[in-house]
Amino acid sequence: MKILVNFASGFIGLFKSGASTFIDWMSSIVPLVLLLLVLMNAIISLIGEEKMNKFARFSAKNPFTRYLVLPFVAAFMLGNPMAHSMGKFLPEYYKPSYYASAAQFCHTSNGLFPHINPAELFIWQGIAQGVSKLGLNTTELAIRYLLVGLVMNFIGGWITDYTTKFVCKSTGIQLSKTVDLK
């Protein structure tokens, strides 16, 4: 009987712990993320959706804007997974590379911009908690993570261009390098 009582106590304890974490998040990170999302939607509304679309088309012209600037702006303004939608303005040839860069950026920016990928915020919080216990500054870590992420995400996108070229050549498939918005 004692085993059943201990199991039931542990089972309920698991949910009590989850509820406590949930209440903690409701008084800390959830309002922050919510206000950041409201701000980003307000900025997009002020700028205008057509101007955002023009920016994406302009960004398709070279690798730096395609894999560094566009993913950063898309992730910051739209969050994950909507940041991937900006790839629709790119030629078919560059879509795999944009996706690679944007998907990685949605992870490497969570420390400074938690609204980008709130579903994975627990990963950043776990790392930040360990860094805090060491007496180190989590903001410095978040900035370094963002800067290294920008460089590595750009490299990842550009390398995917070469991978796409190789796959196209070996399979005989030709992907368009011009934008066709129909």
UniProtKB/TrEMBL annotation:
Ranges annotated as spanning the membrane: 29-47, 67-87, 142-160
Originating species: Lactobacillus corticis
Protein name: Glucitol/sorbitol-specific PTS system IIC component
BP term (GO), one: phosphoenolpyruvate-dependent sugar phosphotransferase system
NCBIfam families: EII-GUT (TIGR00821)
Keyword Cell membrane applies: no
UniProt key word Secreted: no
Gene Ontology cellular component annotations, sorted alphabetically: membrane
Keywords: Membrane, Transmembrane, Transmembrane helix
Listed Pfam families: EII-GUT
